[in-house]
Amino acid sequence: MTSHDLDPMERLLAERACERVILELVRRLDLGEPSTVCDLFTPDGVWEWPYGQRRVEGREALRAYFGCRPADRLSRRLCTNILVTVDSPDTATATTYFATYRVDGYTGGTLVPPRLPANIGHYQDTFRRIEGTWLIANRTLVLPFGGPTERLGVRSAD
Fold first, then answer.
1. Which of 74, 75, 80, 120 shows the smallest number of beta carbons within 10 Å?
2. Tens-digit pLDDT profile for residues 63-107
3. Which residues have C-beta within 8 Å of that of residue 76, sequence separation ≥ 6?
4. Which CA distances in Å does 12 have to 18, 41, 92?
5. 43, 30 in Cβ contact below 8 A?
C-alpha cells in the first residue's frame, strides 16, 4: 500500500497526528519538562545534528540529553512551514522550519529584552506509527544559522 492508496481522511489524520507530535515536543522543551521529550520518540528513536556530530539514540539517552538543560534556561521555539508527507499507513516524514530564542541565567519574573534568535534552521523528521500512536523515529537538525546561548548578566543590588 502506498500513500496514494490511503483514504484522504486517514492521510489527513496521520498528517495532523505527526504535526501534533512536533508541536508537543516544542511545548515540552519550552514550557514543560524537557526530559519527557523522549516519550515522543520510538524506543530506538534518534536525535542527530550532523554538523556538531551529535547523535543521541534510544529513549533513556534522549531523556538524559534533554533533561540536562540548564535550569535557568529560558527558550521559545517558533515552528512554521510544517510539511508532513505520509508514506504509508505507518510511516511518514516531515520538514519543519524553526527559530529558537534562548538565554541562560534567567531568574524568572522579569521581561527579557528582545534579541535575535540563537538558531534558525529546520528539522527533518521520520515517524513510525506504533500500536496506533505516531512517534518520531529520527529527528535531524539542519542548522544554517546558529550561535552560542547568551548568558544574562548578574543584576546588582541597588
1. 80
2. 999 999 999 999 999 999 999 999 999 999 999 999 999 999 998
3. 30, 100, 101, 102
4. 10, 21, 12
5. no
Confidence (pTM): 0.90
pLDDT in tens, 132-156: 999 999 999 999 999 889 999 845 4
Whether 157 has a pLDDT exceeding 90, the answer reads: no
DSSP state of 156: P
CA distance 48 to 55: 4
Question: Distance between CA 99 and CA 116 in Å, rounded?
Answer: 9
Give 143's DSSP letter: E
State the Cα–Cα distance between residues 20 and 142, nearest whole angstrom: 21
Q: Which residues contact 156 (CB under 8 A, 6 or more apart)?
A: none
Pairing of strands 133-146, 41-49: parallel
